[in-house]
Specification:
It contains 11 helices and 12 strands.
Length: 316
């Protein structure tokens, strides 16, 4: 039977960012240095395949520090943790390694700098996301207020409208954040913002590639996890940019083939914590059903690399 023709527009860049790459490397190097088990507080990155792979190598994933023994190393996830977590690990004399993405650490430092200048912080982010919890936990309660939407800006109760600054979660939709920032600046003209956009380069680049593809594709498949903020934003960006169908898939087995009937152009991308191997799995599944022509749509080149902490670079 003749396969129907399909053009696959492959996003570039896609998949792992430098912060995710570094976090995974930290866990692998920690296991190599100290042996198994090594404990990891929270999923190191939001991807089941990655977490399962590291679990097989000797990582034990827990939700809280109270779930870790004192005598084994513990790693803090790439999303960042409240200040109370390393303080508690120090009190318990634990060996710990912080895998917080350096771009998230930059937001933590910004928040502390603003606070030291007497400013109250407004954070644009998603309630309950580990990165938001970590950033808000850098300062005492009440010093960081959370807004998720433009509507939230109208009701947020601040201490002094003249003494405010804002920071953002690094994995948000660029377009949504622009609207929220504009609302903050309209309501609080004196509010200070970051010198450089908090949304990370990888999030921005992946969203731009999706927008470029949406002009040609009727459907978009985003490889990523349901709890991955940057992956979910890619689905939203594709829909807004004109894709009539946009789906988040963890693996090729999740693809809704009925939704792709009659489609002649499809985009494929991956969130910043999704490995390339899973993208290849999706491409192979498409090849089985369609006469595939692959076109790479490159909107940026990435050559960012973050060093792992010194403690892992030193010999055992």
């Amino acid at each position: 039977m003749t396969k129907p023709p399909l053009t696959l527009y492959l996003a570039a860049p896609r998949g792992f960012c430098a912060g995710v790459d570094r976090a995974i490397k930290i866990v692998e190097m920690a296991i190599e240095k100290w042996g198994a088990p090594v404990y990891v507080r929270h999923e190191i990155v939001h991807n089941k395949y990655v977490v399962d792979d590291l679990r097989e190598k000797g990582a034990v994933f827990v939700e809280e520090l109270t779930d870790c023994p004192d005598d084994r190393p513990v790693i803090f996830s790439a999303h960042g943790v409240p200040k109370s977590v390393p303080e508690e690990a120090t009190r318990r004399q634990m060996v710990f390694v912080d895998a917080t993405c350096p771009l998230v650490s930059k937001v933590h430092i910004e928040a502390e700098r603003h606070s030291a200048q007497g400013l109250q912080i407004i954070m644009i982010g998603h309630a309950g996301h580990p990165e938001t919890i970590g950033t808000m936990g850098q300062l005492p309660e009440g010093e960081v207020l959370l807004v998720e939407t433009v509507e939230d800006v109208a009701t947020v109760a601040v201490r002094d409208p003249e003494k405010l600054a804002f920071v953002t979660q690094t994995t948000l939709s660029v377009d949504d954040t622009i609207d929220i920032v504009a609302a903050l600046q309209a309501r609080f003209p004196a509010i200070r913002g970051p010198h450089k956009e908090d949304i990370c380069y990888a999030t921005t680049n992946r969203q731009e590639a999706v927008k470029a593809i949406a002009a040609h594709a009727q459907a978009m498949l985003v490889v990523g996890a349901p709890n991955s903020s940057n992956s979910r934003r890619l689905v939203e960006v594709a829909s807004r940019a004109g894709c009539s169908y946009s789906q988040l898939v963890q693996r090729a087995g999740d693809i809704d083939w009925r939704a792709l009937e009659g489609v002649t152009g499809i985009g494929v991308t991956a969130g910043a914590s999704a490995p390339e191997l899973l993208v290849e799995e999706v491409i192979d599944a498409l090849k089985e059903r369609f006469d595939l022509t692959i076109e790479e749509v490159e909107t940026a080149q990435e050559n960012v690399e973050f060093k792992v902490p010194r403690v892992l670079r030193q010999a055992g």
